[in-house]
UniProtKB/TrEMBL annotation, chain A:
Main localization of the protein described in the UniProt heading: membrane
Keywords recorded for this protein, A-Z: Amino-acid transport, Cell membrane, Membrane, Transmembrane, Transmembrane helix, Transport
Record carries keyword Transmembrane: yes
Superkingdom of the organism of origin: Bacteria
Bilayer-crossing regions: 12-34, 46-69, 75-94, 179-203
Name of the molecule in the record: Amino acid ABC transporter permease
Cross-referenced Pfam families: BPD_transp_1
Compartments where located: Cell inner membrane; Cell membrane
Membrane topology category: Multi-pass membrane protein
Domain ABC transmembrane type-1: 12-200
NCBIfam families, per database record: HEQRo_perm_3TM (TIGR01726)
Keyword Hydrolase annotated: no
Family designation: Belongs to the binding-protein-dependent transport system permease family. HisMQ subfamily.
Length: 213, 222
């Protein structure tokens, strides 16, 4: 049983790596996508909405296969890890764009008006007034999504990334103790998601105190 | 372009069979899962600890484990206790469990959104607890929960693509088989993606529209 657990734990760095990298890609790319989605220009707005809808309407496994076998097979060579990060990162970007959009709407109009009245420049308005509040409002939803992503990252195992799910499959095929192996794997995922939930609660209450609203 | 359409026309019947299978697995697991989710929601809300704690554990395990692990648990795990399921039933049971865990929380949220006065009124007019739930609380709770339940159903249709890993011949399995035999991964995966998008994109837009209509504040007078 100990051996089984050790082998499963060997997958943890890959699971965490895929999750963290894909989340980082999504958090960053979510901003331009959100900007596109909220643009004043109707054609850009439609383009943004179409991108978000397309990314969210096709299952992750199809995106991953498309990137790994479709793009990676012919034109450039991609490692399974990179393909998984790019695929999950793009889907995360679409989700984050929607999260940011909701957060923008939640910032009271008075904040924009006050920033205008104080004659702040556009970068100051964004970085000093809007962004801190945007981040604070986005954290709970983003954290829920990050926990979901941790579990969704299991699809990376279908490309051969040696994450927890991949290890679970290997071990269960070797030991014929599928029930115990998969129960242990489920618990490892559960345990991994606890710190994310705690961190989100802590971060959100700390920011609440520091950034008044 | 013409060459692509010829290929797609050639592959479409094969992928269509997978599409129908994906829809079947999704539909059966949603039916089973939402019914079970309702029971779990009532269990988690129960006063007795003997019901509440087991229900909570079932829900938290189902929400905490990745759907992929649940699928493989039912397909590769259960045979080790001499319970072998076909990939179809393993898929249905795993996705139904996943559905039950998630929808129980959605339904519980809906039940909690029903105003306190409704419970009291049901009590005052002499309805017993089952009747109060059935005629007063649940109709209102499910109305609140409907957009989330539909949104979740769309996610489940997408999640059925994970059944590829337990050798269920659904869309992705068939697309991947065509890809590996013809080396034309790109076009076949685009076709598979379009088949998912053809269902999920209009459905998401519909759910968003429904959500706006049911949003508090714009409820039609009743």
């Amino acid at each position: 049983m100990n051996d089984i657990l050790m082998m499963l734990l060997a997958g943890v760095p890959w699971t965490v790596g895929v999750t963290v990298c894909a989340f980082a890609v999504g958090v960053v790319l979510g901003f331009p996508l959100c900007a596109l989605r909220m643009s004043q220009v109707p054609s850009l707005r439609v383009l943004g909405a179409a991108l978000v809808l397309t990314l969210r309407s096709i299952p992750p496994i199809v995106w991953l296969f498309f990137i790994f076998f479709g793009i990676g097979g012919g034109y450039v060579t991609l490692s399974p890890f990179v393909a998984a990060v790019v695929g999950l990162g793009l889907i995360t970007a679409a989700q984050m764009a929607e999260v940011y959009r909701g957060a923008f709407a939640a910032i009271p109009d008075g904040q924009y008006e006050a920033a205008h009245v104080l004659n702040l420049s556009a970068p100051q308005r964004f970085f000093d007034v809007v962004l801190p509040q945007l981040v604070r409002i986005s954290i709970p939803t983003a954290a829920t999504y990050a926990i979901g992503l941790l579990k969704d990252s299991a699809v990376a195992s279908t490309l051969g990334v040696a994450d927890i799910s991949f290890q679970a499959y290997q071990v269960s095929q070797q030991t014929f103790q599928g029930l115990g192996v998969y129960s242990a794997a489920a618990l490892v995922y559960l345990v991994l998601s606890v710190p994310v939930a705690l961190a989100s609660r802590w971060l959100s209450s700390t920011l609440q105190r520091r950034i008044s609203l | 372009m013409n060459a692509l359409l010829t290929l797609w026309a050639q592959w479409f019947p094969e992928l269509w069979k997978g599409f129908v299978l994906s829809l079947q697995v999704t539909a059966i697991s949603l039916l089973l899962g939402i019914a079970l989710g309702l029971l779990l929601a009532l269990g988690v809300g129960a006063r007795g600890k003997a019901i509440r704690y087991p229900a909570l554990i079932i829900v938290e395990l189902g929400r905490g484990a990745p759907a992929l692990i649940l699928l493989q648990y039912f397909y590769f795990g259960l045979p080790s206790v001499n319970l072998t399921l076909t990939s179809f039933w393993a898929a249905v049971l795993a996705l139904a469990y996943c559905t039950a865990a998630y929808t129980s929380e959605i339904i519980r949220g809906g039940i909690e959104a029903v105003a306190r006065g409704q419970h009291e009124a049901a009590d005052v007019i002499g309805l017993n607890r089952v009747d109060a739930l059935r005629y007063v609380i649940l109709p209102q709770a499910l109305r609140v929960a409907l957009p989330s339940l539909l949104g979740f159903s769309i996610m489940m249709f997408q999640a059925s693509s994970l059944c590829f890993t337990i050798a269920l011949p659904e869309i992705v399995s068939r697309a991947s088989a065509i890809g590996s035999s013809t080396f034309q991964y790109m076009p076949v995966l685009v076709l598979a993606g379009l088949m998912y998008a053809a269902v999920c994109a209009p459905a998401s837009l519909g759910v968003a529209a429904l959500e706006r209509r049911l949003a508090p504040g714009v409820q039609p007078a009743c």
